[in-house]
Amino acid sequence: MKRRHFEFFFVLVMIAFCSVVFFTGLPFKWKALCITFYGVIILSTVLALWLENRPAQNTLLWTYILVLLPVFGYIFYVYSGQLVVKGELFKSKRMSDRRLFEALRKKQRPLDLSKLNDHQRIFAGYLERVTLTDQNRNTKTKILRNGEETFQEIKQRLMAAKDYIHLEYYRFRNDRLGQELVEILTEKVSEGVEVRLMYDAVGSYSLSGADRKKMLEAGIKVQPFLPIKPVWFNQRFNFRNHRKIIVIDGKIGFIGGLNVGVEYLGEDDKIGFWCDTHVVLEGEAVQTLHAVFLLDWKYVCGEKLFADERYMKPVPAAGDGHVHVVATGPETRDMSDHYFALITSATKSIWIATPYFIPNQAIQTALRVAARKGIQVRLIVPDTNDGFLTQYATQSYFPELLRAGIEIYSYQKGFLHKKVIIVDGDLASIGTANVDMRSFQLNFEVNLFLTGTESIQDLAAQFEEDLMESRRIRPVEFYKRGMAVKWKESFAKLFSGVL
């Protein structure tokens, strides 16, 4: 808190100095003094940035921003550039999360990984060692494709709820789909079912106070995640909850890429068809997924639901492989580490579908090396993205990937939003995390890592169907793109460290 007060003070001082220099007729010596003090603030900030030992390209980017953009560069850095602030802002959450997950581990019996093949065992062992959660075997998973199938399943499961319903979404709109879900939730409350809804304050900015009041009056307990406060120097707004979770009676769980809004049903004319993937799971892994929700709920409102045994009771289900729920965020290890470990475990193939492909250097290298070793590497991204910077920043990585022999496909049917990685046809990741720096460093995310389940074959079949709706980007064709496009890519790549 003291640090943020100093930063706020520095901004006011810098504005005052700039006003003296540009908008007053004071003698030159006073203007020179203001310029000197301004330089001292920027220099000390740059030195502190260098001491963080970030990747060189990120350090240079923020140095240029601080030096070349008077005042605004410093404000931008305060809000978006200080990753070190994560440890201060989310210290209490990190400690609370660790205590609960350690308690869960003590209740679970270690799984025998000896029957897995070599690369499955290595990756599963890695996750066991570095995450706070455990593998689950007594879990059934079912892949849901696109919005219509997903929300049909969600509505059916919600209407069958008997005890409680917990929902957590990045984006929850009060459109036709959102209203349908709220009507179901309201009906369940009237039947005595507890309903809690948590939404991200930025992702669900269109959800008005009147919408929230209506849900509260209906008996739905509603909480925003990290609401935007009027204090302008509050830095929490840059860290968002990107998770999509539903837990019903501790028996059923949903996770994947779909938020609540009619665009996810393909009903937005500007976006068109929406290609996405979700998962419904039953069994012991639901308990871990529920723990993620309960900890987030405690963080936003202080209610300790996990003290009640009925919220934390595992309900086993017959499964055919291993399922591992892994939550990441500003308070934990980056998802990029898990993606890197998954990619480097490959021996035959790596298939990736993601709407935003802005990888760090480690993942770039892992993919290039895999392709040069003869491993099949396929990447599907949307033909048209929903932002200028993300569109051209993604394209800026194509040349080196194409040179390494990686197959890149541009999805043509609509907007591809799924986040799926499939390795060797028997390992997979599906969840909320994109292959970009925001998902790696700033967002709260949650993924399922699947080992040897039948669901992996469903994901692979859907991936191949998506390939049929995609155009392969050929090196010769891509290299003929115009100079204007190359300039856009180069410009957008400068911001890849903060996208």
UniProtKB/TrEMBL annotation:
UniProt enzyme class: transferase
> Is Transferase found in the keyword set?
yes
Q: Which GO terms describe its cellular component?
A: plasma membrane
Q: Where are the transmembrane segments?
A: 6-26, 33-51, 63-85
Q: Does the keyword Phosphoprotein apply?
A: no
UniProt keyword terms in alphabetical order: Cell membrane, Lipid biosynthesis, Lipid metabolism, Membrane, Phospholipid biosynthesis, Phospholipid metabolism, Repeat, Transferase, Transmembrane, Transmembrane helix
Give start-end ranges for the coiled-coil region(s): none
One Pfam annotation reads PLDc_2
> What EC numbers are recorded for this enzyme?
2.7.8.-
InterPro entries (alphabetical): Cardiolipin_synth_Firmi, Cardiolipin_synthase, PLD-like_dom, PLipase_D/transphosphatidylase
Localization, per the record, is: Cell membrane
Q: Which residues carry out catalysis?
A: H242, K244, D249, H417, K419, D424
MF GO annotations: cardiolipin synthase activity
Q: Per the annotation, which location comes first and is thus the protein's main one?
A: membrane
Q: Give the catalysed reaction(s), semicolon-separated.
A: 2 a 1,2-diacyl-sn-glycero-3-phospho-(1'-sn-glycerol) = a cardiolipin + glycerol
- Domain PLD phosphodiesterase: start-end pairs: 237-264, 412-439
A single GO BP term for this record reads: cardiolipin biosynthetic process
Q: Which SMART domains match?
A: PLDc (SM00155)
Q: How does it sit in the membrane?
A: Multi-pass membrane protein
Q: What does this chain do?
A: Catalyzes the reversible phosphatidyl group transfer from one phosphatidylglycerol molecule to another to form cardiolipin (CL) (diphosphatidylglycerol) and glycerol.
Q: Which PANTHER family match?
A: CARDIOLIPIN SYNTHASE (PTHR21248), CARDIOLIPIN SYNTHASE YWIE-RELATED (PTHR21248:SF20)
Similarity remark: Belongs to the phospholipase D family. Cardiolipin synthase subfamily.
Record protein name field: Cardiolipin synthase
> Which organism does this sequence originate in?
Neobacillus vireti LMG 21834
